[in-house]
Amino acid sequence: MKNKLKEAIESGEILRIRYFGGSSPGSEREISPVSIFDDNVRALCIETGTVKTFCISKMEVAIPGEPSKLSIKQSFNPPELIDIYEIANYLSESLEALDWFVQYTDTSLTLHTTFKNGKIKKLR
So which domain of life are we looking at (predicted)? Predict the structure, then answer.
């Protein structure tokens, strides 16, 4: 996305984007990028005629007939979890795949790293 924005700055191209931030998440907008800094782009919003700052990680190029890739990522609704046991069961597999060791009791859930031999590193 950053490269596409840089090209548009150089050429003066107007981009049609889907933006998943601001007051209308998922709306399509036409912008004329002006500058890029960090994960942000300053761009003229064609609809309002004002220069706004957009978060690059919350935008994608809108291609007619193609579904949004970002909306799929953002439409995740986790299940309602009642207690720590349900939370631990729900998260353990994903966290362990990231090399975390999950410990939990009636009142707490903690994440730990382990030594190569599998023993848990103590908290400091």
Answer: Bacteria
Closest CA to 113 of 122, 100, 97: 100
Architecture of domain 2-74: Roll (2.30)
Q: What pTM does this model have? A: 0.56
| Cβ-proximal residues to 98 (8 Å cutoff; 6+ apart), any chain | none
Instruction: Name the residue ranges covered by the structural domains of the chain.
Output: 2-74, 78-124
What is the tens place of the pLDDT at every residue in 85-116?
Answer: 888 888 888 888 878 888 888 888 888 888 88
